[in-house]
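Hello support,

Our group uses your service weekly, and this is the first time we've seen a run hang past the timeout. The protein is MFS transporter, PPP family, 3-phenylpropionic acid transporter. I'm not sure whether the cause is the sequence or the server load. Input pasted verbatim:
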Amino acid sequence: MATLSLKPRISRSAEGGAIYWRLSNLYFWFFALLGALLPYWSLYLQGRGFSYLEIASLMATIQITKVVAPSLWGWLGDRTGQRVRLVRLGAVVGAISFLGVFLEPAFFGLMLVMLVFTFFWNAILPLYEVITLRGLGSDKSRYGRVRLWGSVGFIATVAAVGAVLDRVSVAQLPWLVLPVFLGIVVSAFLIPSDQGVVRKEEGAGSLRGILVEPAVIAFFLMNFLLQISHGAYYTFFSIHLEQYGYSKAAIGLLWSLGVLAEIGLFIVMHGLFARFSYRQIALCALALTLLRWVLIAEASDWLWVLLFSQLLHAASYGAMHALSVQYIHGYFGRGHHGQGQALYSGLTFGAGGAIGAWASGFLVEGYGTDLAFWGSAIAIAFALIVTWRWLRPPPGQGSIVQSAD
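Update from on-call engineer: The timeout came from a worker crash unrelated to the input. Re-ran successfully.
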C-alpha cells in the first residue's frame, strides 16, 4: 500500500516542476525582448537620424498597441477559452511582422511595422498572466518565482546586447533582436494545450459593475499615472545616460541592476503580502518611485546615486506590478479575469506609457532629459494622492495574500 500511495505523490511533484518551467520559459523570452528593445531601441532610432519627437512617437507605438490589443485578445480569451492558441498566434505573427524592420523604412513605414509587430506581441502577456495564475492553481504565491524568470531574461539580454553594441554599430540591433523573437515562438509552443474550449466562465458580477467601483477606478488611475511617469525612463533613459558620458555596456549594466532588484523583490513579495496591506505597500512603492525620478533628474553624474536609483526599480515596477496582478485576480474573478488583465495592460502600460513617452519627447526636445524626469516625479505625486484618498482592497480581503487563495 505504501508503494501505491507514493507513486501519485512523486507524479504530482514531477508534473508541478514541469509546469513551473514551462510557465517560466515564455516569461524569460518575452522580457528578453524587452531587454533588447527598451534600453537600446531609442539609440538605434537616434542612429537612424530620427529627431527626439520622432523617437518618442516611435517608442510610443510599443505602448499604443497595448491599449487595443490586450483588450481584444483578452476578450477572445475569456470568450473562447483558447488562450494558449492565441498566445501562439501572437508569437508567430509578431515575429514575422518584425522582419519589416530590415527593410529600413522611413518614419511612417517604420511606425507601421512597429504597430503591427507590437499589436501581436503585446497580446501575449495579459493572456499569459491568466494562463500562469490558472496553471499555478491554489499555489498562486509562487507567481513571483515564475515571473522572476522574465526579469532574468531581461537582464541576460540587456547585458549581452550592451556588450555587443560596444563592439559593433547600433545599426546591427535588429539582427540581435531576431533570435529573441524565435525564442518566444518556440516557448509559446511548449505551453500545454488548452483543455477544451470554454464558452463562458463563472464570475462574480458584471464587468461594468466592477469597473464603476471607486476603488477599481482609483487602481487604474494610480497605475495610469505610474506609467506616465515611466515614459521618460523607457524612452530617454539610455540617451540621458549617454549624454552624461556612460558607455553602452555601462548603460546595459544599469538597466540590468534595476531588473536584478526587481527579481529580489519578487522572491520576498509573498512575505510582504503577509505583513502589509495593498494600500500600505502601494504608498511606499510610489514614494520610492518619486525619489527615484528626482535622483535621476538631479544627480545622474554621480554613479553611486544612479546605482541606488536603479535599485528602486524594485518598487516602481516590481512591487507595483506584482500587487496589480493579484489585485485584478481578487477583483475581477474568473469570468472577467482576462479582460481585467487586458484593461490593466491597455489603460496603464498602453495609454499611460504612450502619453508618458510623448510628453517626455516634448520636454526633451525643448528643455532636455533632466526636466523630463521632473515631469515623471510630478505624475507620481498625483498618483500618491489618488492612492492615499481612494485605493481600497477587494471586498472582504484585507491583504493580497487572502485574495490569492
